[in-house]
Amino acid sequence: GDRARSPCVGTRLEAASDGMRVRDLMQRDPATLDADDPLDLADDVMRLGRVRHFPILADGKLVGVLSQRDLFRAAASSLLQLQYRSSREWLATIPVRAVMSTRVHAIAPDRSLRDAVDVMIAEKIGCLPVVDAEGALVGLVSETDCLRHLAHLLREEDEASPDTAERRPTE
Q1: Is 84 buried (19+), middle (13-18) or exposed (0-12) by CB count in 10 A?
Q2: What is the spatial distance between Cα 167 and Cα 171, in angstroms, rounded to a whole number?
Q3: Helix axes 113-123, 143-160, angle to 10 degrees
Q4: What is the pTM for the complete model shown?
Q5: Taking the chain (171 residues) in consecutive chunks of 10 residues, what is each chunk's mean pLDDT?
Q6: Are 51 and 45 in contact (CB under 8 A)?
Q7: Which of 2, 13, 53, 165 has its CA 20 to 30 A from that of 30?
C-alpha cells in the first residue's frame, strides 16, 4: 500500500544531503596497494581488514582499483586452470595490475555526495577514489559509507517525526 508521510519528510532528507560533500564522508588515507604487489597480499589484507576495495598506485599515482570481485575472479580462474598448485601459491605469482580495474572513476573531495552516489549507480561500482586537483589520492568513498550516512539520516528522520508508526507500510 501507500505510505502515509508528513509533508516535510522528503524535504528534510533532501536538505540534509544537499550540503554533504564527498570530503565529509570519505575515508581519509585509505589502505592502498602497489600495482606490482602480489594478489596473495591483497587477499590477506582484504580478509584481515574486511576491506572490499583498494586504490592501486604506481609511482604514487592512482592507476586502478582492485575490488574483492576482481580477486574472486582471479582465484576462480586459477582453480580452473591450475590443478597442480594451490590457489594461494598461484595468487602469489600474479601482480595486482593483472586483475585490477584500470577504468578508474574518481571524484574530487568538494563534489556533492549526491554526485558520488550518481556515479557509483551509473557505473555499477562500489567505490570512488577521491583525488585532489593534482590527481593525488586523498580518500575513498564507498557504497557502504553512503548507506551508513543514509541510515543515520533515516534514524534522525524517525526521531524527528511525532509518529513514526504513520510512515510504516500498510498491508
Answers
A1: exposed
A2: 12
A3: 130
A4: 0.73
A5: 42 60 92 93 88 93 93 72 61 88 94 95 95 94 92 88 59 48
A6: yes
A7: 13
Cell numbers representing residue 129 in the block: 577514489
Compute the distance between CA of residue 157 and CA of residue 9 in angstroms, rounded to an integer.
7
> What distances in angstroms separate CA 19 from CA 13, 14, 36, 112, 149, one per listed residue?
11, 9, 39, 7, 13
Tell me if 130 sits within 8 A of 144, measured CB to CB.
Answer: no
CA atoms within 13 A on the CB side of 138: 15
How far apart CA 88 and CA 147 sit, in angstroms, is 33
Beta-bridge mates of residue 127: 142
CA 68, distance to chain mean position in Å, is 11
